[in-house]
Design a protein that fits this description.
Helix content: 25-40%
Shape: globular
Number of helices: 4
Radius of gyration: 17 Å
Number of domains: 2
Distance between the termini: 40 Å
């Protein structure tokens, strides 16, 4: 899996939304993007991402003490009642790096509920 630096901007810098709108950054940021995967494997994708980054937890603690770091994922569910899980090793890896896990979850079709 290939990850790419998708956006970088310093505080006060200009960045563009996907629609082309110019935004002045209220704070600096650095983003990595993963390719869209279907079906998704959030646990595996997090492990793959971390395998490309430093394992030095002291460095991560230094960064997380100074900056707000998060791991964001958009989840697009194919059904009304679909779930996913993260292993204890993955949740520990996220937490030990001082990162917050943030999810946008989009529900699937309601027709699964109507089948009863």
């Amino acid at each position: 899996m290939q990850f790419s630096r998708s956006r970088v901007c310093e505080k006060g810098g200009i960045w563009h939304t996907p629609s082309g709108k110019e935004i002045v950054a209220r704070h600096g940021f650095w983003n990595l993007s993963a390719p869209v995967a279907s079906p998704g494997d959030l646990d595996g994708e997090v492990r793959a991402l971390f395998s490309t980054l430093s394992d030095d937890l002291d460095a991560w603690r230094t960064l997380s003490a100074r900056y707000h770091g998060n791991l964001f994922a958009g989840l697009f569910l194919s059904g009304f009642n679909e779930g996913l899980g993260l292993s204890p090793a993955t949740t520990s890896a996220i937490g030990s790096r001082g990162l917050a896990l943030e999810l946008d979850i989009y529900g699937g079709d309601d027709t699964d509920r109507d089948a009863d």
